[in-house]
Each structure stands twice: as structure tokens, then as C-alpha cells.
């Protein structure tokens, strides 16, 4: 059963499919993300009310539907503010853009569902890296990679909510291909987290921990392995769809349109620096993009 547990001081988390954070002071609460739909929002609001917390603000770590899906319900019931980074905020205000950007155009209904498109909510505060949220002492930490404008939240208790910058090794082993928007930024974020000073780390998908290094190591190995797989697949001329298909087969994934667009985005994020460095060469054959490793 989902419930808020105390991590340290005024910092709490409700652990579930997406871990939701709360920083509480004098009976008022700032939430860190809101879950994947109105049902999640209703549950989080009920848990807060049971503790007599008044929700004043939701900080969204990034725009993905499983993190902002409860926004609309909670905002309508409490009139709370919503804060997000400048790069993520437009997708929270206009969530139809998430499936559209994944599809590179108007999205089919199969990916325009609550798993990839939350209800719209109103962002009232734009956050910059290093922002100190006045009156709360919460520090905004940039964590790009999984999403371009993804942020983490460091509480005054020394607890860092790390969003989807890393996910647990258990989940990595289950799915094998984590969603990544920017491969190079993700690797830089892993390096930064390795030396980050905090008493506790709270990934959105994974276990609360005091040492983040084993988790960053697992995520770094996973992305490096995918990079090597793509280079090996491209030892023969390959299209992006061929790469996606071969990765899906190798990792035992049952494909559908949502799974396809998510894996395709990760492949694109890994391909971009390989193309820029010349490790993968682009050519066109009868109008079709062909990708081949240089060596």
C-alpha cells in the first residue's frame, strides 16, 4: 500500500511505480512529481490530507506523463502552483506535444494515451539550474539526459530526488533499453552524480539509497552496451528501423507503437554523437537513410 514514509527531517517519499517526493514545513507541502494519472493524483492528495498537509506547489522533474499525470487533479482541488524547467514546461501545459515529438508529427491514437499524454496543467513557475526556491530552501539540480530539461531537487535535509536520471539495476535488467533523449548529457549526469554530496538519493524508479555510485555504474554500463550493440549492428549498412528491430529481438521485447517510438528515440540519441564523431557514416540509397560503422 502506497504511503508517505519519512526519509530525513522534513523530507518524505511515497514509493510506488513512480516515487513521489514531499518536503513539508509548518503543515505545507511541496510535492516532487505527481504520478501517472488522475488516479495517482487522487491517491497522493488523500495521503497528504491524512497527514494534514496543504499542498502548495508541485515541482515536476520533467514532462513525461508518468511524472505529471496527477498534476491536473491536484491543481484543480488545491489551486497549488506547478514548477518546471523552461525546457519541460511547454510539454506540461500542452501534453499533446509529447506523442507528437516522439512521432515527429501528429501522433496516432495508439500513442496519444495516458501513458504518453497526460492531462494539461498550468505551470506557474519556471525553474533555472541552481534556483533556490524561496521560503523552502529547495535547490534545483540540472540532470539532463533522460529528458533535455530534466531537473532534480535537493532538500535542506540533504536528500536528492534524482528523477529518471538513473533507474534501478533491477529495472534495467528487466527492460534493457532505458529511454534516453541525449546520450552525451546522460553520461555527464552520471559522472556528476558520482561525486554529488547528499545523505540520501531518491530515484523515481528504484530504491532510496545512500550511495548512488552503484546505480550510476549500472546505468552507464547499460548505455555503453547499447552504444556498442548499435555499432556492431551497423557493421552492415542498416536503417534506423533495422537497428530498432534488432535491438528489440536481442532484448526479447514485444513491440507495439508506444514501445517502438520510445526505443527509436533512444536509438536516435545514441546515433547522433556517433554520426557527429564519424564513427557511423550516413548515406542514402534510393532515398533511404543507410547507417554504417566506419570500421
Give a short overview:
The chain is an alpha/beta fold. It contains ten helices and 14 strands. Helix 1 crosses helix 3 (71-78), helix 7 runs antiparallel to helix 8 (213-233) and helix 9 (240-250) crosses helix 10.
Q: Mind explaining what this structure looks like?
A:
By secondary structure, the protein is an alpha/beta fold. The protein has two domains: 4-224, Metallo-beta-lactamase, Chain A, CATH 3.60.15.10; 234-293, Arc Repressor Mutant, subunit A, CATH 1.10.10. 37% of the residues lie in helices and 22% in strands. It contains ten helices and 14 strands. It has helices at 38-50, 65-68, 71-78, 89-93, 97-103, 169-175, 183-194, 213-233, 240-250, 257-277; strands at 4-8, 11-14, 20-25, 28-32, 54-59, 81-85, 125-127, 132-133, 138-142, 151-154, 159-163, 200-203, 280-285, 288-293. The strands form three sheets. Strands 1-2-3-4-5-6-7 form a seven-stranded mixed beta sheet, with helices on one face. A five-stranded mixed beta sheet has the order 8-9-10-11-12, with no helix packed on it. α1 (38-50) packs across α3 (71-78), α7 (183-194) runs antiparallel to α8 (213-233) and α9 (240-250) packs across α10 (257-277). The radius of gyration is 20 Å and the shape is globular.
Amino acid at each position: 500500500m502506497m504511503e508517505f514514509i519519512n526519509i530525513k527531517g522534513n523530507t518524505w517519499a511515497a514509493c510506488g511505480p513512480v516515487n513521489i517526493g514531499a518536503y513539508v514545513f509548518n503543515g505545507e507541502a511541496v510535492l516532487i512529481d505527481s504520478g501517472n494519472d488522475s488516479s495517482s493524483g487522487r491517491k497522493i492528495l488523500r495521503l497528504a490530507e491524512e497527514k494534514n498537509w496543504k499542498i502548495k506547489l508541485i515541482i515536476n522533474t520533467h514532462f513525461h506523463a508518468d511524472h505529471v499525470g496527477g498534476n491536473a487533479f491536484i491543481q484543480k482541488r488545491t489551486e497549488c502552483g506547478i514548477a518546471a524547467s523552461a525546457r519541460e514546461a511547454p510539454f506540461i501545459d500542452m501534453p499533446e506535444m509529447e506523442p507528437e515529438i516522439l512521432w515527429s508529427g501528429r501522433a496516432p491514437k495508439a500513442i496519444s494515451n495516458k501513458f504518453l499524454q497526460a492531462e494539461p496543467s498550468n505551470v506557474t513557475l519556471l525553474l533555472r539550474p541552481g534556483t533556490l526556491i524561496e521560503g523552502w530552501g529547495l535547490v534545483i539540480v540540472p540532470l539532463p539526459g533522460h529528458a533535455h530539461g530534466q531537473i532534480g531537487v535537493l532538500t535542506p535535509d540533504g536528500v536528492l530526488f534524482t528523477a529518471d536520471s538513473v533507474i534501478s539495476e533491477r529495472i534495467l535488467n528487466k527492460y534493457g533499453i532505458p529511454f534516453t533523449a541525449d546520450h552525451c548529457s546522460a553520461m555527464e549526469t552520471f559522472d556528476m552524480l558520482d561525486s554529488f554530496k547528499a545523505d540520501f538519493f531518491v530515484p523515481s524508479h528504484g530504491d532510496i539509497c545512500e550511495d548512488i555510485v552503484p546505480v550510476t555504474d549500472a546505468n552507464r554500463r547499460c548505455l555503453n552496451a547499447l552504444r556498442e550493440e548499435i555499432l556492431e549492428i551497423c557493421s552492415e549498412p542498416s536503417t534506423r528501423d533495422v537497428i530498432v528491430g534488432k535491438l528489440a529481438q536481442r532484448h526479447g521485447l514485444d513491440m507495439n507503437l508506444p514501445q517502438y517510438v520510445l526505443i527509436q528515440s533512444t536509438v536516435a540519441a545514441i546515433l547522433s554523437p556517433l554520426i557527429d564523431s564519424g564513427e557511423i557514416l550516413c548515406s542514402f540509397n534510393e532515398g533511404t537513410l543507410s547507417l554504417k560503422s566506419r570500421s
